[in-house]
Amino acid sequence: MKIAEKRTYDMQLLPESERPRLLLVDDQPVNIQVLHGVFSNDHEVFFATNGRQAIKMAHTCLPDLILLDVVMPEMGGLEVCRQLTSDPETRDIPIIFVTGQDSPEDETIGLEAGAVDFITKPVNPAVVRARVKTHLTLKHQTEQLKSMVFVDGLTGVANRRRFDECLNIEWNRCCRHNKSLGLFMIDIDHFKKYNDLYGHQAGDVCLQKVAEILSSQVGRSYNLVARYGGEEFVCLFPGISMENAMSKARQMVKALYECALPHAASDSASVVTISLGVAVTFPAQNRLPEELVAAADAALYSAKQNGRNQISSRNLT
Fold first, then answer.
1. What gap in Å lies between CA 25 and CA 23, rounded to an integer?
2. What DSSP string runs through 81-143?
3. In a domain? residue 9
4. Residues 189 and 310 in one domain
5. Structural domain span for residue 84
6. Is pLDDT at 246 greater than 90 in this prediction?
7. Considering all CA atoms of the chain, what is the largest pairwise distance in Å, rounded to the nearest integer?
8. Residue 195 class from Cβ within 10 Å (0-12 exposed, 13-18 middle, 19+ buried)?
9. How far is Cα 304 from Cα 308, in angstroms, rounded to an integer?
10. Same-domain status, 167 and 261
């Protein structure tokens, strides 16, 4: 649940879409209201009043940080923390325990469960703000370092390793929420001939331009474009229908064609073009994400066999 509020806007604050997301978890509404008052002006605040609701909200809103009570009925904060830190989708979300327990033993148990910090009640607003700011900064720095590992050095889009990780995460998320998952496999047509004619440096510039165009067309932030290898790219679209996937694919093919990068050696057109394979399915626990990759790859093969510079699709049932 998200707390309804009347927001006041300050030019010095981040735009609402860029504000850090906080999940407040406490079975006492008064404690949530206190923390909400501390953070609502410059954070996007969500809340949960029990452990199971907290786990569900963590997967739904993917907060940047969680402030979690330890003592709650049915499922306590320690178990919530253990479940979240053992799940690949939520394990990187820093968790700060906010609790009335203040013994060294309690703090040790909390940190061993996976929390990054421990704040005792009643909270001091200045202290809790400072702790949250510190851990959000550390999280941001960690994400920057990780992004260097997951970014293709030439094109600046995600690399194959990042795609493999996101595919597994989105597959499992779509399983839980009964959502569809779309996958595009994209190949630059006659790229070897392009390199042979224009040289490998020009080929690198071509790859960068294709990546830029695909990124401009991919849409929402949770969609992904990645370099799959060589002249192949891949795009991931959670929650997309086949109809919308085909529309998105046509936009990509059109955008690249209209960019009009010369390709005198192409048998398909006088400019650089792409072939695109589309596959959409509803993931299930008894199936593997590799099936979606194979379907998109087969669709790409059909597009290339049928003359390139076009789209082919596979709808998995």
1. 6
2. HHHHHHSTTTTTS-EEEEES---HHHHHHHHHTT-SEEEESSPPHHHHHHHHHHHHHHHHHHH
3. no
4. yes
5. 16-150
6. yes
7. 74
8. middle
9. 4
10. yes
Residue pLDDT, tens place only, 77-127: 999 999 999 998 899 999 999 988 878 888 899 899 999 999 999 999 999
Any idea what the CATH number is for the domain that residue 53 is in? 3.40.50.2300
Nearest 5°: phi and psi at 203?
-60, -40
Q: What DSSP state is assigned to residue 16?
A: G
Instruction: Give me the residue label for tokens 């050696």.
Output: 265
- Under 8 Å CB-to-CB from 186, ≥6 apart: which residues? 214, 232, 233, 234, 235, 252, 274, 275, 276, 277, 300
Q: What is the DSSP letter of 14?
A: P
Q: What is the pLDDT of residues 270-288, one digit of tens each?
A: 999 999 999 999 999 999 9
For residue 18, what is the DSSP state? G
224: in domain? yes
Single-letter code of the amino acid located at 14: L
DSSP state of 152: -
pLDDT (tens digit per residue) in 163-182: 999 999 999 999 988 999 99
